[in-house]
Design brief:
The complex is a heterodimer of chains A (258) and B (363). Chain A has 258 residues and is of the alpha/beta class. Chain A has ten helices and ten strands. The longest helix of chain B has 37 residues. Chain B has two domains: 40 residues, no CATH class; 254 residues, MetI-like (MetI-like fold), CATH 1.10.3720.10. The two termini of chain B are 15 Å apart. The chains are: A alpha/beta (258), B mainly alpha (363). Chain B: One of its GO terms (molecular function) is phosphate transmembrane transporter activity.
């Protein structure tokens, strides 16, 4: 269920602006990898290029190779929708479909895949909600609107929606930045459980969070505004936070910069 | 979450309470300087001098504005009531004089010495032509709106949107003339073709003549309501939150699937409102239909034979030579049209209201 992600020389543009340059990085299956760095350093851009969501924006494009277990997702004959089904994404702000019930939200991805059978959908909905630690809170009101839940619950609903289609890799773009500390904790616990099944890559501005949840950490940075973001250091989380080999990383994690 | 409404309500009242305090000092001193005859107490002038707070003004812009808005609101009700009374007062004598059944009689001769007129055929024609027009216009309008909002390059979308809006500015009499003199020819040819090959279907049956038919009227109507529905639904589609569109795409949706999952459900109340506005225009459309329909009295589902009539078109056609009873009869038909429109609007509201739980949380 979990796959290795390999990026080599990934460069991404917004129109003429080069947002990230020559990112090389390998993410092992069933690990949590944190992407940290100052604002505008291209962490989110890199994350969005892993499931080809970057190119959704007008004028945005990606160069380089990104392989999932050896298959380049930027090959010409690759179906974009298949890539996105394989690599799920959780966004910064909880974004459940406002017109759908909790249940409909969870099974939305399955319905897109053409699953019609009620029994399969029911089972998937329950399993995903259980995996997202949300089942006990919502099992009595699956028909209610998903947007009626609290922010933390909505975000777990979005996670349930993402894992319902059984992706190989789950990308999380600052999933806790709009949440209170208790909901944040709930999501962090969830990540621990999910890494048994999925490869998780998370962008976060919260360094304690990176230190708590991730196995490996990648530090991105830019020289100055307008320059493309680069990968400065990528190592075991423990090493990055205790004994980084790069001066810039040390400055950033000790709060002297960014 | 539940605490938010009361809190914002407090903030609202706080704002109102604070506002006069803010407004007073500057305005007060200016007024005192230029006009010694002031309604306020002399102590009110000592602002900032440690004196008491100025008294509330007995009459100010605040109060005047409130009275003005109240008057405007009341005027609407008064006008509506006056119109209703006038219409009913004019309609009732004509209805009394009617020697035929107003609901079922197929014909309209209220000017005879023994007036006979019935609304059934007109109401039928009104509903049929409007429904047909919507049936044609809605899919096309939604298609155009989706193309403009989600497929076309931004610049092209804006330009095309502007053109569509221009279509709404064409006067209906122009549409009527165009329909009667030009558009009728292709429609007639098409009707003959339909009659030849699909004549076994009753709606395409008959032996002619073809042309100035319900189909022509409905097609012209469809073109007329198209811009309203298009530009309103385009606005609604453009408002779909990007977050929801991205959520659908990230689940592996194609663009059409994304539209079905995120855009259309989100825009549903807006689409209904747009369609209802279009229907309102179609039901009330007068001159274009008076010019394009065959003007006959009879209930028939045949779409291609000359014929058809609507309440509004009949009023336009018959008002000129109507006597007192005739005018009363037309006014009665107007009341029926009003009722039909009202029912349509209430139904639309009910549809939107039924889903409010979902649409409100969407906002």
């Amino acid at each position: 269920m979990a796959k290795r992600v390999d990026a080599s020389n990934v460069t991404a543009y917004y129109g003429a602006f080069k947002a990230i340059e020559n990112i090389n990085l390998t993410v092992e299956p069933k690990t949590v990898t944190a992407l940290i760095g100052p604002s505008g350093c291209g962490k989110s851009t890199f994350l969005r290029s892993i499931n080809r969501m970057h190119e959704v924006l007008p004028g945005a494009r990606v160069e380089g190779d990104l392989t999932i277990d050896g298959q380049n997702i930027y090959d010409r004959d690759v179906d974009v929708t298949a890539v996105r089904r394989m690599i799920g994404m959780v966004f910064q702000r909880p974004n459940p479909f406002p017109t759908m019930s909790i249940y409909e939200n969870v099974v939305a991805g399955l319905r897109l895949n053409g699953v019609r059978k009620k029994s399969i959908l029911d089972e998937a909905a329950e399993n995903s909600l259980r995996s997202a630690n949300l089942w006990d809170e919502v099992k009595g009101r699956l028909g209610k609107p998903g947007a009626g839940l609290s922010g933390g619950q909505q975000q777990r609903l979005c996670i349930a929606r993402t894992i319902a289609v059984e992706p190989q890799v789950v990308l999380m773009d600052e999933p806790c930045s709009a949440l209170d500390p208790i909901s944040t904790l709930a999501i962090e616990d969830l990540m621990f459980q999910l890494k048994d099944k999925f490869t998780i890559i998370i962008v976060t501005h919260n360094m304690q969070q990176a230190a708590r949840v991730s196995d490996r950490t990648a530090f991105f940075s830019i020289e100055k505004t307008g320059d493309p973001g680069r990968l400065i250091e990528y190592d075991n989380t423990q090493k990055i936070f205790s004994n980084p080999s790069h001066k810039k990383t040390e400055d950033y994690i000790t709060g002297r910069f960014g | 979450m539940g605490e938010t409404p009361p809190r914002s309500a407090n903030a609202g009242t706080g704002g109102i309470r604070v506002a006069p305090g803010h407004g007073q000092p500057a305005g007060a001193s200016a007024r005192v300087a230029e006009a010694p005859v002031s309604t306020r107490t002399p102590g009110g002038g000592d602002l900032g001098g440690g004196g008491g707070l100025p008294r509330a003004r007995a009459f100010g812009a605040e109060r005047a504005f409130r009275g003005l808005t109240l008057a405007a609101g009341t005027a609407v009700l008064v006008i509506i009531a006056a119109i209703a009374v006038f219409l009913i007062a004019k309609a009732v004598p004509a209805l009394r004089a009617n020697t035929a059944n107003f609901w079922t009689y197929e014909g309209w001769s209220p000017n005879d010495t023994a007036p006979e007129f019935g609304i059934g055929t007109l109401a039928f024609g009104t509903v049929l032509s409007s429904a047909l027009a919507l049936l044609i216009a809605v899919p096309v309008a939604l298609g155009i709106a989706l193309y403009l909002s989600h497929y076309a390059p931004r610049r092209l979308g804006t330009a095309l949107g502007f053109l569509i809006d221009l279509l709404a500015a064409v006067p209906s009499v122009v549409f009527g003339l165009w329909g009667r003199d030009i558009f009728v020819n292709p429609v007639r040819d098409f009707s003959v073709w339909l009659n030849t090959y699909f004549g076994w279907i009753p709606i395409f049956g008959g032996d002619g003549p073809f042309g100035k038919s319900i189909m022509l009227g409905s097609l012209v109507l469809a073109i007329m309501v198209l811009p309203i529905i298009t530009s309103l639904s385009r606005e609604v589609f453009l408002q779909t939150p990007t977050a929801n569109e991205e959520a659908a795409l990230a689940l592996g949706a194609t663009r059409w699937e994304m539209i079905r999952t995120a855009v259309l459900p989100y825009g549903r109340p807006g689409i209904i409102a747009a369609v209802m506005l279009g229907l309102g225009r179609a039901l009330g459309e007068t001159i274009a239909l008076a010019m394009t329909l065959g003007i006959t009295f009879g209930i028939s589902f045949n779409l291609i034979e000359n014929g058809g009539n609507t309440i509004a078109a009949n009023i336009a056609n018959a008002f000129g030579e109507a006597n007192d009873t005739g005018r009363g009869a037309l006014i009665a038909s107007g009341l029926v049209l009003f009722t039909i429109t009202l029912i349509v609007n209430i139904t639309a509201r009910a549809i939107i209201y039924r889903r409010r739980e979902f649409t409100e949380s969407a906002a």
